[in-house]
Design a protein that fits this description.
Component of the heptameric LSM1-LSM7 complex that forms a seven-membered ring structure with a donut shape. By secondary structure, this protein is α+β, with helices and mostly antiparallel strands. Helix content is 20%, strand content 39%. It has a domain of 79 residues: Roll (SH3 type barrels). The chain contains one helix and six strands.
Length: 122
């Protein structure tokens, strides 16, 4: 079998635009500039893509260092299809407002379920 030497598996991804999902659910997009044997990565022109419903916003991060232990998924970004169809780009302020509204809605749902707990709906 032809396996790459340890610590070199990411060489083919150098200078490529990648989308990386972190353990906490955040999605980071940037150009891979460097990595080490622990999959720690340096991304250039990094942005955090926040998606709420059909809205999204790219928050600029600049040069970003990711610890390998926080990586869940990684893949190259197709330049022609960087934004999934059906999503509308909004400003950072609008996406923050949408996040707050989504959290409030989830909190209200939890409150309503707690009030109706005596009904044993399940």
């Amino acid at each position: 079998m032809d396996y790459p030497p340890p610590g070199t598996a990411l060489v083919e991804e150098l200078d490529q635009k990648l989308l990386i999902q972190l353990r906490d659910g955040r999605k980071i997009i940037g150009v891979l500039r460097s990595f080490d044997q622990f999959a720690n990565m340096v991304l250039e022109h990094a942005v955090e893509r926040i998606i709420v419903g059909s809205l999204y916003s790219d928050i600029p991060l600049g040069i970003y260092l990711l610890r390998g232990e926080n990586l869940v998924l990684m893949g190259q970004v197709d330049p022609g299809r960087e934004v999934p169809p059906g999503l509308q780009q909004v400003s950072e302020a609008e996406i923050r407002t949408a996040i707050k509204a989504e959290k409030e809605e989830a909190r209200l749902k939890g409150t309503m379920r707690a009030r109706m707990d005596f009904l044993d709906l399940e």
